[in-house]
């Protein structure tokens, strides 16, 4: 059970600041997801925690113990890399045992732990194979297995699913969720740019932007009470609609945000009116792009397939007044 | 389509010219080496006689066998020593950031461009001071000047391309730089090591200037020097049959090695060349 | 828990410690075998050192390079390397040899590379065949060609006479008219494969769809070569040419064995070694070595500057 505490953590490469002062506390056993667009510093922050990058200033503590200058193995972390990073010349068994052997574990102990992890991940049958003889999903399991055997205090994932195809990604996502349930005493940090992964896996999400923490909270908090336009736009798919000028004025705010799923088509007397530009049919749901005279088309989600035709005039209104109001600076507007 | 037939014929004619030009001198050396006595002095394009007398002569007489052994010892030692030093140095140069790294790489590159003659005088003094004059050790020592920069350079470019994440995974597993080199990188690098080692071996095997200058007795010579100094009392008495037999003996192992490893050699040559 | 100052982590310290340790043997070896000898050579060029008595070398300044005596008659007599006709002859030979051989190698290398870049049956055989000259030791090829170029029994004379290129046998290596040609033939034969392989590597980096696009546009093959292939392969070609030029400038063994006594082929390296070892003019030879080094060093710097050799790549 490890608490991770970051205080004013900074990282610069030369004169370029990547992490600009992060304060964050991660609870013992928590599954924390770092999410943000590419270049926001989420991977760098993870590498600072791992000890693969030097901390420029600030402190990083595991359970009150400052670990700034410790090596990754001294910190007791394990990490799953984006490219799996398996040792190509070692069998699955040796890949998983390498760290334990280096730590001078007894042969019996190494064997026991590797087999236990292999069973947990159902890769016992592949222990004698080389990584190149495995499929992408199997390799990913080995990479996770290699991390598990070390019985880490902190478990780090660096975009582990981005090299898998869509179907496998969903399946492995589920595996990781199960893993977290089993290893509920291990603190986990998971980096991704995919908000769906973030929403489904996280206990709490930390949204990063330009090296700063934009908002930290549970997935629902982020969805329901985004503390900025950036978070509001980043969490949720399709993205939240943002309206300004006369549309926002009606709600006495600078920027008005409405999620596509919080809009519905009215037969008449809708709040906004416009021509249907395009209807995307996904079968179970559909998205309508409507030109209501705003800067960008308004996106509306509706259940089932769309029966409307492009060019049709439609009326739209928010459901139950489910709207978000932001001021000029992108923060939630005060009442 | 007569046009394409002409084109094809011309193309294959060109191919034939290239192959004949490339191979003929070696072919001619081989057929000469199997001819003895006055037969050597009649011009023949095809193998007409087959006598191993020249080979028997060259191996039995003089110090040729000894010189061959010298060449093998010197080249093998040079390759081993330079690979040992180059592997660790290449790790530092490709994987660790430190101040002056570019300058160091630049220096290494310029040393590989050194004309050997520029260091001949100074090296002569050093070798005599160390008591290595007229020894195989002296040759191994001096050959480092061209094999070491080359191996360092090629292995550095190769190591630079190894995935960073594998190294980081090893770091997370608690591996020290030495462990990373020996247990993670080396097993991945053996193709590069074979290529680089082979190229260094060929360079050492073919070296002439230092071998000529830093040895004085026939027992310490390497084969290129022996072959170069095979002369009769006048130009007409050059024992051509024996020279050709010796040449073939020295060359055949190289040609066989090169043909076996030709793909690797080509990639190694261009790695050292295009990037270097 | 207070904010800590910037401390380098244990990992970074460990890595830079290892890096220093890993580099040390190589740096020491290069210093002893290259750095120090070079400095000593330069030093000797300013002394009166002789081969038999190196230790007694005395500083004489620029005497080996240039010195003059004023005679009573008012005439000034210059002596030293910079006014030595033998030296300038060697310089001229070296330059002539380098430029002509590299130019020929570039042309032939390009032709062979283009052939090897085409798809045809037996490509593997051709590639293997051209590797043979490269694999043969220079000394051996000098000997082989020396035999083929023999004035009485050489097959080259026989061949050329049969074809009608010449009407009487030529003493290729001995005659002053043909000695340089003989050296050029052997060098071009031996090093064209290297050039061809470097150019081929450059050719293979050109994406195939460019040619497809050109074919669709109906570009004539000759025009295609000069407008597409040549510009795209130029960087690789330039690197190969510069490499070979630097290499050709220091040629020694081929000439030493093929045409040992010809003034027409004596290059800077051959002359310098002659003075250093054979003629016991150690200091004078050192001065020649130093000048050759300077020339090549300047060319190298120029080459690195032109080629902008990428030195600092990679992730870490």
Features:
heterotrimer; B: MetI-like fold; 12 helices; globular; C: 316 residues; MetI-like fold; 2 domains; 11 helices; 66% helix
Structure commentary:
Chain B: InterPro entries: BP-dep_ABC_trans_perm, MetI-like, MetI-like_sf. Chain B: It is a multi-pass membrane protein. Chain B: Keywords: Cell membrane, Membrane, Transmembrane, Transmembrane helix, Transport. Chain B: It holds the Pfam family BPD_transp_1. Chain B: One of its GO terms (biological process) is transmembrane transport. The complex is a heterotrimer of chains A (335), B (276) and C (316). Chain A has 335 residues and is α+β, with helices and mostly antiparallel strands. Chain A folds into two domains: 231 residues, Rossmann fold, CATH 3.40.50.300; 86 residues, OB fold (Dihydrolipoamide Acetyltransferase, E2P), CATH 2.40.50.140. Chain A has ten helices and 18 strands. Chain A has a six-stranded mixed β-sheet with strand order 6-7-8-3-9-10, sandwiched between helices. In chain A, α3 crosses α4 and α3 packs parallel to α5. The longest helix of chain A has 17 residues. The two termini of chain A are 42 Å apart. In chain A, 41% of the residues are buried. By secondary structure, chain B is an all-alpha fold. Chain B folds into two domains: 50 residues, no CATH class; 214 residues, MetI-like (MetI-like fold, Orthogonal Bundle), CATH 1.10.3720. Chain B is built from twelve helices and no strands. In chain B, α1 crosses α11 and α6 packs across α8. The relative contact order of chain B is 0.13. The mean pLDDT of chain B is 87. With 316 residues, chain C is an all-alpha fold. Chain C has two domains: 52 residues, no CATH class; 195 residues, MetI-like (MetI-like fold, Orthogonal Bundle), CATH 1.10.3720. In chain C, a hairpin with a 5-residue loop joins β1 and β2. Chain C is globular and about 80 Å long. Chain C starts with 9 loop residues before the first helix and ends in a 9-residue tail after the last helix.
